Fold this sequence. Notes:
This protein has 215 residues and is mainly alpha-helical. It has helices at residues 2-19, 44-65, 76-82, 85-102, 114-124, 127-140, 187-190, 194-204, 207-214, and strands at 145-151, 157-163, 174-180. It is built from 9 helices and 3 strands, in the order ααααααβββααα. It has a 3-stranded antiparallel beta sheet with strand order 2-1-3, sandwiched between helices. Helices cover 53% and strands 10% of the residues. The protein has a domain at 114-214: Iron/manganese superoxide dismutase, C-terminal domain (minor pseudopilin epsh fold).
Amino acid sequence: MRTTVKAATLVAALFLSSLNLNAMKFELTPLPYALDALAPKMGKQTLELHHGKHLQTYVNNLNNLIPGTPYENMSLEDIIKQSEGPVFNNAAQVWNHNVFFQQFSAKPQAAPTGALLEAISKSFGSFDAFKDQYTKACTALFGSGWVWLVKNADGTLGLESYSNAGNPLKKNLTALLGCDVWEHAYYLDYQNRRADYIAAFWQLVDWKVVEGRLK
């Protein structure tokens, strides 16, 4: 009798596991630079914790939340657009952080050129005026959240500020540049000095990457 029960249990377990063999599993996107490459503006320990711990936790949480749901075989972008609550929060934070970390370089292109510069100048008056508005938005955002430079459906550019895990995909906007103003993004390097973190942020942005997102 015990053998029969064990066999039935094993069959059931194998069946349940087979249901998710083709389920999408998200993975931590590697950094495109060494952990110490952005120091001292963004230190090694900050990246170890922010990327290796915080982002990894969002990835793990998402992978644990979606099996057996309508989201388990969706792309990350579709999950964000269609979900709410914990699934949205973790999916959005995975996407947000991927955009954030991929836009930096130890030797960045220091300013936009070409079509992006033209679009920024048309929408904000000048690159300096854009930086000023973006910096003010980052400084003014209460609590934790994100500030985004986005491309609207009509091709114009704008700024979007969101609390917590908010991101532009919910509005079908194209994200060009994102600044993480959660304290875990800067506390080890700057303590409570968000303004100093934002000043350093500008020195790390690789505008070649941002230009690639405009297309």
